[in-house]
Amino acid sequence: MRHPARPCTALTLATLALAAAGCSTAGGGGSGATAAPGPAAAASVTSCGMPLTVAAPPKRAVALDQASTETLLELGLQDRMAGTANLKTKVPPQYEAAYAGIPVIAPKIATGEQLRAATPDFVVAGSADLFTADRAGTREELAALKVPAYVSAVDCPERNPAGKSPFELLFSDYENLGRVFGAEERAGRLAAGQREAVAKAAESGAKSSPGADRPTVVYLYSVFNGMPYVAGKSGLPSEMSRIVGARNAFDDVDGDWPEVSWEEVAERDPDFIVIGDLSERGRPGDSAAEKRAVMDRHPVVSRLGAVRDGRIIEVPGIELDPSVRSVHALGLLAAGLKDHGRAR
Questions:
Q1: What is the domain extent for residue 76?
Q2: Quick one: which of 13, 39, 298, 317 is 20 to 30 A from 263 by CA?
Q3: Where are the alpha helices (DSSP H) in the chain?
Q4: Count of structural domains, the chain
């Protein structure tokens, strides 16, 4: 549900303009084991068709969602962050200490007033729909205030090169943000490590059932009011399936996470079911245990081979959406298919 933005005051707009004007001075880097951004230098990148330029590494970045928050933390940029918002679950243990020092400007979706009150000099989001007039404000509005607004390349399909995988688009985000913040070395290591993880998952999938028909997978993200929400063709799981030599059973259905019926799940008769555990989110039907219980009770789904024979793989649900953590879910998928035997 969208949260309507309250009108911004002249004070917050003026404060934001002053903060943006001061962003040409480089600040300190990360603390502890994190890598500090490089020396002050201008940088330019293009995000979803919009050229973005900073005179120096940002000092007051705001991340509007969990995916962008954790990307900046992975890059060691917590000391450059003036705010975060809209976390769906707890941050993982490796980010807890760094996250603790970042102001939460909004527990859910940030409004324009909340964003401007944080006086950012750079804004990052994993989803383009966070930059709307009734949310944080459009990217054009922010550009007029000299605040660059970056959208993940994964959520910009109309601008992306044909055939470029969602994982490669994620890696391009790391590299672009590394350039903006002067953290190219750390961003390069992150992208290289995750490319290696993707290659390992692909190799595991190719070796597990050479020449066999591709097994089908249903990705069960959530159960709301008793109805299943599964991965459609535009979500990351279709690419994850391809990498490991499988096929998303609902890759002919539009949307990232469309609502379907249990009867449709039964008709697809998947070889495997991947359950996204969202228990930390705390909504009814979010936990893996609840989803298993629903399937076990269903008169038709409970008879499916995948349910009856336990060909079920549990992964953290948030990792099924594009983020710095998604390669972990990919590895769990590859290992689970191999452990269960991938051929029909």
A1: 10-156
A2: 317
A3: 10-21, 66-74, 93-100, 112-117, 139-144, 166-181, 184-208, 236-243, 262-268, 288-297, 305-308, 326-340
A4: 2
